[in-house]
Write a structure and sequence with these properties.
By secondary structure, the protein is an alpha/beta fold. The protein has 19 helices and 25 strands. A hairpin with a 4-residue loop joins strand 18 and strand 19. 42% of the residues are buried.
Length: 648
């Protein structure tokens, strides 16, 4: 009896009770609950790439330990069906999955783990089912591009690789069966007891973009064609209705094919496709977008229903910024059904890849729709993967300098604080470990992780702002940045923009050269490297001009005040902080900082991030003015009520 008692004392602590997790509204904002307790959603995640993805190996283990010592208790690890579903086997090999979780627990026995499960078909499956794979409108499949060692599993995703069509019912069924098996086999293991979530990943880089979308046009394959025809039957019901919409008697519901490269790339009004002329193309892209959303909801539903206890499920989705001007082909346009789905708890995206925003002095904003997500009661998580500042400059021991340390540290603080002040969360995604060292394997950086976590945890129970109530009030100012409402889904019409904005405008001839805009008050200019089409001039006599083209003086930004609200319409996109600041100030917004530092306030905190530094006057809402001098490449957090510096 005594020997048995001693054995129990030696059992690892992760053999304790099963963990549960859920996201629910708490104090006006979506909140992560683990074991019924609210938790700050700050994670550490290993990379997906070879050399850094296995939790039990030396460098990943060291960095897991580092973050555990900094107080982090939430972790994420990658796992592919490729890793556990072997050719010729009917069942999954769960040893590697359990070992991946166990490696985290070895460094942090109190950990709660999210597994990023990639549901893409294994490469052997694609080779065995070529008829289920994506084909490309602009070229053949590049079968020579084979991922797997020495390349990582996502290598060549943006080319024209051999990848299963996201419309494949066979892949969806078989991969779905494996997700069910995975959940049922892992959930009741000692390692599975510590798993609180599954991040379901698919498509390019696991981010639910369609294969090759940045430079190539998918999917012309047979399974997408079948899906498209079924989609058309649901929409049009009869051949006659289809032919009327497509303005062609060539196609029927039975023989309709997906549009080719030329049809897809044709526009009719500047950057816009005219629904009256391009209905076939618009239908196809709508169907392609819909099938991706259906896949996402399908896999998340299976995970929810087969785990056996409360589990959070999340995805990469909702990207708006930095989609390479290819939203139609591979963006995330079916946001509404995703946000309405009860099977999805959080959405996620990397922080922007736009260099000016990503590096020191920039905003570091997310690529996704954070506020829309949180207003739907779902959690938002940023992926903080900018462990570098420039493409050719990585903070490795050879190139490490004190100046780099200072700049990188400021960016780290900004990029961590911003999502937390948004009422969202984040994970540090450590691509550095594949190079033999973690990006944050530095006492100074790790101390910052711990400091931010402690202060943000204290603020976790601060009530959030009720945006719905504030937005719904009369007297607000609405800013329409370019041709909002230009189409009603049936045609392109500038009158739709007038009806929405209340400001009259007309078409003008598109310039042949770059366009330069003069903002009037305050006076500054900004330019576009190429003409923006269609070209629009504001002609409303009741609107106050705010900006004109320097060539010809045509009004391109104007403001008009109505009885219930004020409308600011930009016939060319408004760029430059000075113009936005002037519009916001005149709208009654409080401006904390008249300098072009990144400044963000929420939850009683004020975040200041600067590239150049210098003397600053910060105007608090209480009327108090705070004078301070910011060092170059620095990040400060202040109490937004008192101006007290809380962290720097």
């Amino acid at each position: 009896m005594r020997k048995f008692f001693i054995l129990l004392l030696l059992l690892p602590s992760y053999l304790n009770a099963q963990q549960t997790a859920e996201v629910k509204l708490h104090l006006g904002k979506p909140t992560l609950f683990v074991n019924n307790q609210p938790q700050l959603p700050l994670f550490y995640a290993l990379t997906h790439a070879y050399g850094g993805r296995w939790s039990w190996e030396e460098v990943p283990a060291r960095n897991l330990h580092n973050f555990a010592q900094a107080g982090v208790r939430l972790f994420q690890v990658d796992l592919y069906l490729e890793d556990i579903w072997q050719s010729g086997r009917d069942t999954l090999d769960m040893d590697k999955a359990r070992r991946q979780v166990r490696g985290v627990l070895a460094q942090c026995p109190q950990a709660s783990v999210v597994v990023r499960l990639h549901v893409n078909a294994p490469f052997w499956w694609n080779e065995a089912h070529p008829g289920e794979c994506t084909e490309y409108a602009d070229g053949p499949i590049q079968t020579e591009l084979r991922a797997g060692p020495p390349f990582h599993n996502e290598q060549f995703d943006i080319d024209r690789p051999l990848r299963t069509s996201l419309a494949s019912a066979l892949w969806k069924k078989q991969a779905g069966d494996k997700v069910v098996e995975f959940c049922r086999k892992l959930a009741d293991t000692p390692e599975g007891h510590t798993v609180i979530g599954l991040h379901l990943s698919g498509g390019i880089y696991g981010e639910w973009h369609y294969w090759g979308f940045i430079d190539h046009d998918p999917d012309t394959g047979p399974v997408m064609t079948r899906y498209f025809r079924d989609w058309l039957r649901t929409k049009y019901k009869t051949d006659k209705a289809l032919q009327a919409a497509w303005k062609s008697n060539e196609y029927t519901l039975t023989n309709a094919t997906v549009p080719g490269k030329t049809e897809r790339q044709t526009t009719h009004d500047g950057a816009f496709k005219d629904p009256a002329q391009s209905r076939r193309v618009i239908d196809y892209f709508t169907a392609q977008q819909q099938v991706v959303a259906e896949d996402i909801i399908y896999f998340c539903k299976l995970a929810k229903e087969n785990w056996g206890r409360k589990l959070i499920t999340g995805i990469f989705y909702g990207y708006l910024h930095t989609t390479f001007n290819r939203q139609t082909v591979g963006g995330h346009l079916f946001v509404e059904p995703i946000l309405d789905s009860p099977y999805i708890d959080y959405l996620a995206a990397p922080q922007t890849y736009w260099e000016a925003s990503r590096k020191v002095g920039g905003s570091g904003n997310s690529r996704g729709l954070v506020e829309s997500t949180t207003l739907h009661g779902k959690l938002w998580l940023d992926e903080l993967d900018n462990g570098y500042l420039h493409k050719d400059h990585t903070p490795d021991p050879v190139h490490y300098t004190e100046r780099y340390d200072s700049v990188f540290h400021a960016v780290q603080k900004r990029s961590t604080w911003l999502p937390l002040l948004h009422g969202a969360g984040l994970w540090y995604y450590d691509f550095g470990v594949q190079k033999g060292f973690g990006w944050w394997d530095n006492p100074r950086y790790l101390e910052t992780v711990g400091q931010i976590k402690r202060l943000a945890q204290e603020r976790l129970l601060t009530p959030g702002a009720f945006i719905r109530d504030r937005v719904a009030q009369n007297g607000r100012t609405l800013v329409w940045n370019y041709l909002t409402g230009f189409t009603n889904g049936e045609t392109l019409n500038l009158n739709f923009v007038r009806d929405l904005t209340g400001i009259t405008s007309q078409r003008t001839e598109t310039p042949k050269a770059a366009q330069q805009v003069q903002f009037l008050q305050p006076a500054y200019t900004y330019h576009f490297d190429a003409p923006v089409a269609p070209a629009i001039t504001i002609t409303d006599p009741n609107a106050e001009p705010l900006a004109r083209l320097t060539d010809g003086g045509r009004v391109v930004i104007a403001r008009r005040t109505f009885a219930t609200h004020t409308s600011v319409f930009c016939a060319l996109p408004l760029n430059g902080t000075d113009g936005f600041r002037a519009i916001f100030r005149q709208a009654g917004c409080h401006v904390y900082n008249d300098k072009n530092d990144f400044t963000y306030a929420n939850n009683g905190l004020l975040l200041l991030h600067t590239k150049d530094g210098g003397p600053r006057t910060i105007n608090l809402r209480s009327g108090k003015a705070i004078s301070l001098t910011l060092p170059p490449a620095s990040t400060y957090v202040l109490d937004s009520q008192t101006g007290e510096i809380l962290r720097k």
